Amino acid sequence: MIRSQRGIPKVALAFLSVLAALGIGVVLMAMAAPPQTPGAVTDVDPHKAFGSKSALLVLEVFSDFQCPACKTLYMTTNRQLMDNYVSTGKVYLIHRDFPLPMHAHSKVAAEYARAAAHLGKVEPVEQTLFENQEKWENSGDVDGTVAAVLSPAEMTKVRALVKGGTLDPLIEKDLALGRMYNVNQTPTTIIHSNGQTYPVVGVQSYAVLHQFLDQLLGQK
Fold first, then answer.
1. pTM (2 d.p.)
2. 1, exposed or middle or buried, with CB in 10 Å at 0-12, 13-18, 19+?
3. What class is the 10-218 domain?
4. Domain boundaries, the chain
């Protein structure tokens, strides 16, 4: 189901029409919270952000490593997004941790991923967590999953960061921000463009998302 509110620009309504035609059930609506310009997005952990801070578009992806839909978004749409928009300076992509209470190991996975990010190893760790999601979901062995892609010395540092508890406040900040945006499921992608903020809920295909992003970029 697609819902909309008054005040959505024509470009966004056009995007809604495309989604409806394709039968994609996501939500795109103007937010009650004050719209933000890309430079106004705060509480960004630079270790979990990708691309240029001066990009015209900012995407905040609220994700849970134990969420199957988040895995799908990461493995499909967001990989192409990184190649075609983030690496080219068009989009500043921010990963927001939003571990859901229903998932027993997602908070631990977020801690390990964030610790690895602080060592400059965010990409291999996020990839292995999503690719092996079913295995560690069943076994609870997040540590072993991450250890498979890091060196023993790196794992020592990661475990120390996780045990130290200094990463928990950063995850809590993401959770609080998500609640401010009224995020209640994952994945939720918050798009900031031209003083407007749009939440897109669910797994949107790259073919559809890039049409909307190109339309937004065309307004600049």
1. 0.85
2. exposed
3. alpha beta
4. 10-218
